[in-house]
């Protein structure tokens, strides 16, 4: 998977990056919901598979102390160039979060299609990592598409896959994604935002 994304960034074929987080009003409402019952400052947020940092920057603007992690060096280099001096990005693997340098005590996790791209063993590893780094009462927003048997696009993940990989968390909402800011292959495969809370 890393090879495919490395090539995509090198040749500029990154529709997920061009879509941009700010274009999806429904996504902004989901973040509003995350923040409604929290006191300021909001706390730490981890953007899993942050790419060039579009969503990480969105979180920062909203008042989160956000950290982005991605294993594609070129994407992280771009994120750092586009962000302010206080922004923080880590080159690392979401399946090896402990010891990756992102830190601990996160109150919120955002995953916009990263989990959706992983195989089962890697999803379990991601689940173990976020659980180990989470504060009590932490929440997560996880974007997945319906499972589908294509080799050209992400395999997708249904609710059962989410619950299997994150047994310490409970799904408290499953909302159809608006899709306005998503690449076309995500829009056409029933994208869903799962909201999870650490049990």
Description:
It is built from nine helices and seven strands; from the N terminus they run αααβαβαββααβαβαβ. With 199 residues, the chain is of the alpha/beta class. The protein has a seven-stranded mixed beta sheet, sandwiched between helices. Strand 2, helix 5 and strand 3 form a beta-alpha-beta unit. The relative contact order is 0.16.
Q: Structural class per helix/strand content?
A: alpha/beta
The total tally of domains equals 1
Specify the CATH class. Alpha Beta
**Helix-strand string:** HHHEHEHEEHHEHEHE
Q: Kindly report the CATH topology.
A: Rossmann fold
Give the C-alpha Rg.
15 Å
Continuous helix count: 9
Query: What can be said about the biggest beta sheet?
Result: 7 strands, mixed
Q: What would you say the CATH architecture is?
A: 3-Layer(aba) Sandwich
How many strand units? Answer: 7
Helix content: 25-40%
Unreliable residue stretches: none
**CATH homology group:** Vaccinia Virus protein VP39
Strand content: 15-25%
Mean pLDDT: 87
**First CA to last CA: what distance?**
31 Å
Placed side by side, the strands forming the largest sheet appear as 3-2-1-4-5-7-6
Form type: globular
Protein name: Methyltransferase domain-containing protein
Organism: Nocardioides koreensis
InterPro entries: Methyltransf_25, SAM-dependent_MTases_sf
Domain Methyltransferase: 46-136
Question: What is the strand and helix layout of this fold?
Answer:
Blueprint: H1 2-11, H2 15-19, H3 25-36, E1 44-48, H4 54-61, E2 65-70, H5 73-82, E3 88-91, E4 106-112, H6 114-117, H7 120-133, E5 134-144, H8 159-165, E6 169-176, H9 184-187, E7 192-198
Parallel strand pairs: 1-2, 1-4, 2-3, 4-5
Antiparallel strand pairs: 5-7, 6-7
Helix pairs in contact: 7-8
């Amino acid at each position: 998977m890393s090879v495919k994304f490395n090539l995509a960034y090198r040749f500029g074929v990154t529709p997920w990056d061009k879509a941009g987080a700010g274009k999806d009003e429904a996504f902004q409402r989901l973040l509003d919901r995350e923040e409604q019952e929290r006191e300021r400052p909001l706390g730490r947020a981890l953007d899993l598979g942050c790419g060039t940092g579009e969503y990480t920057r969105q979180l920062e603007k909203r008042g989160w102390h956000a950290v982005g992690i991605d294993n594609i060096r070129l994407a992280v280099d771009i994120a750092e160039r586009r962000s302010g001096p206080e922004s923080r990005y880590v080159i690392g693997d979401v399946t090896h979060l402990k010891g990756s340098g992102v830190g601990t005590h996160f109150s919120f996790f955002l995953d916009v299609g990263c989990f959706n791209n992983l195989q089962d063993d890697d999803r379990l590893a991601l689940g173990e990592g976020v659980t180990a780094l989470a504060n009590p009462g932490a929440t997560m927003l996880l974007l997945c598409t319906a499972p589908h048997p294509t080799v050209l696009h992400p395999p997708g993940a249904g609710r059962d896959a989410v619950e299997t990989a994150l047994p310490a968390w409970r799904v408290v909402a499953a909302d159809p994604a608006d899709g306005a800011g998503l690449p076309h292959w995500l829009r056409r495969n029933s994208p869903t935002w799962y909201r999870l809370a650490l049990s």
